[in-house]
Amino acid sequence: MVTIIYKGKIRKVHEAVDRANALLADDMFYHAISSRGTFDMSDISAAHVAELIRTTDLSMRLITYIGSPRVHGYDDRDNPDLIHLNIFRADWTLSGIVNTMMHQIVHAVNDVHRQYNFSHGDRTVDGKGNTAPFWIGNHAEQRIDAGTGLSQGMVHDAHPESLAIDTLD
Q1: 96 located within any domain
Q2: Helix/strand/coil percent split, the chain, to 5
């Protein structure tokens, strides 16, 4: 099972990590993903994606950084087990943080299972809502928000030269 580890000091991030880890242990979360049927840009079914997320043994480490106030985080191909969370966003909600973490988890699981593709291509957001990373992140956000239908969607940063806030120790 995928789990998220955060050793930083930001209380809201700790709470979001707890909520995300609870979703990752929730059978209903995987049932909802499986029920989706298919994802855009994926060569496997949504049920297969859900099963890979559920069964992949992966400890994701979360670190925070200060980047552009327009972005949520970034993908790190050199360290796919790291979740980079931009804390410079003024509009972070607990559920939005969970969305970003789940989005990054989908990428990390896809990196472990490179024989499949269930990513979303480039860093653009438009037209990507039905890809696995965006849909699963948005679904997690809506679960946290108790079905409000609101979703921030993850806006990607380039691999920034930024100020890291947390260390991995």
Answers
A1: yes
A2: 40, 15, 45
